[in-house]
Amino acid sequence: MWGATHNPWDPTRTAGGSSGGAAAAVAAGIVPVAHATDGGGSIRIPASCCGVFGMKPTRARTPAGPKRAEGWGGLGVGHVVSRTVRDSAAFLDATAGAAPGDYYAAPASARAFLDETKTKPNKLRIAVSTTGAFPGAVHPDCAKALHEAARLCASLGHQVEEATPKLNGLEILQAQGVVINANVAFNIDEAAAALGREVRASDVEHCTWFRVERARATDSPTYAKAMNTLHAVGRTMAAFMDDYDVILQPTTAQPALPLGVLNMERTDVDAVFRDMMGFIPFTGLYNISGQPSMSMPLHWTEAGLPIGTMFTGRFGDEATLYRLAAQLEEARPWKDRRPPL
After folding, report:
1. Where are the beta strands (DSSP E) in the chain?
2. pTM value?
């Protein structure tokens, strides 16, 4: 309605998405915490771009009702972006838990997440990787942020080593697209029912309409196959996490992009999605596996742009992430860093 959301650290750049407005509002000091959702990185990506903390909880940790029990076939989950780790944990304590009749629920937590932020983590086994499920180049600034975070973790006594899960990125990307397309088309049909008329291409962004058309051209066995592909990812990641407590990766492969690069009104849809995956090849994997995953603002470039670093835990284990996050926040605090607005 009001045009592009600007990044408080550099108004010529994106605030990230989808919850870019939430992260920009927190970074600018308008609010201390803002609601955000994450179906492919939309808590962690804007948190990285705007220099705030963003935790994507475990699948089904927070309820998605009352109209539905899950978002995007289980890919989506809701929580907040915040200036501090403490506030994120407190809000998750306030909102976690299944709603009556939910199809499934996340494993119960042993105690309050806020209490976890007051507990020093044990020595953790941390896998460091610059390779995403969807291969692509990592910008030197993002690689620098990652390696600084790895050294910080090692200095705090954690065991850090390079390791990457083996996954078929193209197959996963295609399956993820089928599921997202179907859910976007369903949302469009809901809007049509509410409006009492057919939705036209001009009602939505060009790339959204592309997804609707792809969904309507896809048969139901293809959707079932896609879901089976995505379910297998969770098993692969669970096996990988037998050897590690946490995976450390860049949140984004590039610093916040200039406004307009990811404009969903661009007519060359393939180019838009190529640009998007070149920017965010890491986050979506953990929506598929359902693992908790957080972006931490531990690095700023020489030009003053924040770059987040992503830490991902075992399925259901936000507790370990909150302990580690609080330890890193104490070692390298950021809450008093403010954009030059």
Report:
1. 6-7, 10-14, 33-38, 53-56, 77-82, 125-128, 159-162, 246-250, 293-300, 306-313
2. 0.97
